[in-house]
Specification:
Length: 195
């Protein structure tokens, strides 16, 4: 008994929108990794019709094992490309790539090389990280300066950005902030001589 074809989700491009489900279109989709069941679902044809049209087009049919392997290879290529983007565009380490799906640092390195990436030395990674940290630190210092010059106190700024008061003072000095005089805490001093 043929499985009931499921209509494709609304808004998806299937290649069958104009109603012409040619043997060549089916063959292209099949050779790109689609299963017969998926072709039945998107085309609206019966299982037997899809198989017959694939044979008409001279398609070399796969076993289910070959389809799984093909899909695993595609998934591996996709993962490798994703890891390369993380590594090159975001400065991720091999350890972070392992946590992002590679499993181990060794597997991450292998996938990175498969995707055409070049592993960095530890020093190169540290330079990338310190440059990114320096940029973020300058941005934070500028933001703190603007808030401080707007009237916020150093303890308030420290609480808002979850840094110590000393760190906020350091960041304000790095941003060349003109500091206000510090307020004295405790009882006010008496002016004049004691009697």
């Amino acid at each position: 008994m043929n499985p009931q074809p499921q209509p494709p989700p609304a808004g998806t491009e299937t290649g069958f929108e104009n109603g012409a489900v040619t043997a060549q279109v089916l063959r292209q989709r099949y050779e790109s990794g689609a299963t017969i069941a998926e072709l039945v679902a998107v085309s609206g044809l019966s299982y037997g019709t899809v198989v017959n049209r694939l044979h008409e087009a001279g398609t070399e049919m796969r076993t289910s094992w070959q389809t799984r392997r093909m899909r695993d290879e595609q998934a591996r290529r996709n993962l490798a490309a994703h890891l390369r983007r993380l590594y090159e565009q975001h400065g991720a380490t091999l350890g972070e790539l392992a946590a992002a799906g590679a499993g181990t640092r060794r597997a991450a390195r292998r996938l990175l090389i498969e995707a055409g990436g070049t592993p960095r030395t530890t020093q190169q990674t540290l330079r990338i990280r310190s440059a990114a940290n320096a940029t973020a630190r300058k941005k934070l210092a500028a933001s703190l300066r603007a808030r401080y010059e707007g009237g916020a106190s150093v303890p308030e700024l420290a609480k808002e950005c979850s840094h110590s008061v000393a760190t906020v003072y350091r960041l304000l000095r790095e941003a060349n902030t003109r500091m206000r005089p510090q307020h004295r805490h405790g009882p006010a001093r008496r002016s004049g001589k004691r009697s």
